[in-house]
Amino acid sequence: MNPSGGKIARAQAISPLVEAGNIYLPHPQWAPWVNDFIEECAAFPNGAHDDQVDAMTQAILRWHLNPPQPTFYLSDIIEISPI
User: Fold this and answer.
1) pTM
2) Which residues have C-beta within 8 Å of that of residue 10, sequence separation ≥ 6?
3) How far apart, in whole angstroms, are the C-alpha atoms of residue 17 and residue 41?
4) How far is residue 57 from each of residues 17, 25, 30, measured CA to CA in Å?
5) Distance, CA of 38 to chain centre
6) Interval 15-44: pLDDT, tens
7) Among 13, 26, 22, which residue's Cα sits nearest to residue 53?
8) Contact predicate 45/7, CB 8 Å
9) Would you kindly state where each structural domain of the chain is located, as residue ranges?
């Protein structure tokens, strides 16, 4: 995938999703890397490292651009009669 725009532009594009609380991270108790990741995000774009932030923004942008897939329920497809 060739990302378009710069790292800052991609981060700005997903900031409304983050600010709205629509991005979830695992609890640091189960994923010890989370605290370091949050620190990297907080220091962006002036921090020493920004590769994880950029990877996250690209993943969220790509995921957000894919249209939601339809959901089918078995009860909608076949008639289920009580026993």
Assistant:
1) 0.68
2) 3, 54, 57, 58, 61
3) 14
4) 11, 14, 23
5) 14
6) 999 999 988 999 999 999 999 999 999 999
7) 13
8) yes
9) 19-65
